Amino acid sequence: MLNRGYAYTTIISGKYHGQTLLSHLTSLYPHSNPQAWQQNLNNGEVTLNGVTATGSESVTSGQTLVWNRPPWIEPDSPQHFEVLFNDPHLLAVNKPRGLPTLPGGGFMENTLLRLVQKQTPNANPVHRLGRATTGIVLFAKTPQAASNLEANWNTPKIQKIYRALAQNIAQQDAYEILTPIGLVPHPRIGSVWAANPNGKPAKSLAKVISRTTSTTTFEVSLHSGRPHQIRIHLASIGHPLVGDRLYGLNGQPLKNLPGLPGDGGYFLHAQFLKFHHPITGEQINLEAALPSGFSLHQ
Q1: Mean pLDDT within 200-229
Q2: pLDDT for the residue numbered 262
Q3: Which of 75, 127, 194, 197 is the most buried (most CB within 10 A)?
């Protein structure tokens, strides 16, 4: 799909004051090298405070930097979802593997958000799942529902239970995982969320569902909402997800050319979501059926 392009806008922060614009763009968007950025500049795609930039400018704190990325052909992604719950305030859907929840990482139109809003324009996701993660995504249709759910999302009032297929055989039947999560260096994109002793507190409870000769299937309850939390937490206790190309045994990026956060191949499914309806107060128990990949690998 050829999209409409996008204007990426940032405000120059004080710590970059005096950098050349070219070096700033290269550090801000490390997916492209200086030569590629100079070509974008030569094409007139970048403005600084509304003026087309050349790249040789020194940036100043507070300036507005805009990269007007031309339309591009997005990677293919599934164009379907299953509705699990629908009323005037809420919409819950079962997201397929390979469909991003929100725009980013080269996707603008091929996203769950765009697909849902074609049918329900006032629906906005309360949370997100990674592109390769399947399962329940909850949308709010009204500001009241959104504010209530967002206020309670990382509290015991909302139960979020996942199924995860992990490498290696678990020695215990249950684990409380408290590994802090923060940004660490990544050779391809600058930084990525991972196990980091100086990171933010995080808590997951992992219970063994089954074992094979080389894998363990866990049921994981989230008690905080850090990025990639389950992938990082299970990896940090010696059980990276089967097929995960980013995280290794310690919850850190793999040593040799780690993958990107959006890379697929792993098995993680948001299976259950339990909460009180933000408007009516009724108990809502949602379940998304396991995708076929889990049974094939167990």
Answers
A1: 96
A2: 86
A3: 194
| Percent of the chain whose predicted confidence (pLDDT) is above 70 | 99
Q: Specify the pairing of strand 215-222 against strand 124-125.
A: unpaired
How far is Cα 3 from Cα 101, in angstroms, rounded to an integer? Answer: 17
User: What is the Cα–Cα distance from 206 to 239, expressed in whole angstroms?
Assistant: 11
Which pair of tokens denotes residue 63? Answer: 């300036």
Which alpha helices (H) appear in the chain, and where do they start and end? 21-28, 34-42, 112-119, 143-152, 229-236, 292-296
Q: Which residues fall within 8 angstroms of residue 236, CB to CB, at 6 or more apart?
A: 177, 179, 195, 250, 251
Express as a percent the part of the chain with pLDDT over 90.
84
Nearest to 123 by CA among 95, 96, 152, 87: 87
Residue 294 pLDDT > 80: no
- The whole-angstrom separation of Cα 205 and Cα 222 is 7
CA atoms within 13 A on the CB side of 296: 6
Q: Which amino acid is at 129?
A: L
pLDDT tens for residues 252-279?
999 988 999 988 899 999 999 999 999 9
User: What DSSP string describes 178-192?
Assistant: ---EEEEEETTTEEE
Q: Is the pLDDT of residue 298 over 60?
A: no
- Please tell me the pTM assigned to this model: 0.85
Q: Pairing between strand 90-95 and 134-140?
A: antiparallel
More confident residue, 294 or 260: 260
Q: How far apart are CA 17 and CA 22, in angstroms?
A: 13
d(CA 170, CA 232): 16
CA 146 to CA 273: how far, in whole Å? Answer: 16
The amino acid that residue 79 corresponds to is Q
